[in-house]
Amino acid sequence: MQYRSVSASALLITLLTSCVASQPRNVADVCDIFSDRRAWYKAAKASAERWGVPTPVNMAFIYQESTFRARAKPERSRILWIIPGPRPSSAYGYAQALDSTWSDYVQASGNGRARRNNFDDAIDFVAWYNSMSTRLSNIAPNDARNLYLAYHEGNGGYQRGTYREKQWLLEAASNVQTNAGRFASQYSTCKSELNKNWFQRLFS
Questions:
Q1: Dmax over Cα atoms in the chain, in whole Å?
Q2: pLDDT at 4
């Protein structure tokens, strides 16, 4: 009986692990990502329409936070440069969402089964947070740089300007803006193809 219980647990872990998508082959090209993973495109498009923030902006956030790795976590600190110490925060998953902020999203979205290592949930989280920043901090939906500053510092911190003395964060926010622009250019060339259903693609 004990052997069967262990085997069932191992099988469950294997099944759950297999549900987590691997990192896309070309994370720098949003068309390649969506062409390989049509389900991701549908999720990203639905989140953009639901929350009013462009898909390239939301995708640039996930590129910055995890480069599309489902189980990404912050690097551990080091004790005496050798011994692994604690992680600096509870950030986890595609969007590097904190425990507390993720709980807020679950409550606001009504998605009680949302998981941070699920792309559909993570892209919706990013779009939700960015939508909140457009409303609370009056940031334009395509202003990826300032949206990222609010995403990292929280809207209260953004409004107080807590990012101004953080050069590394300012550089990261500029990278997000650059990547959002690149993704937007790429997206414009493949959006119509991505919107075709399987039958239409047979004749394209």
A1: 62
A2: 43
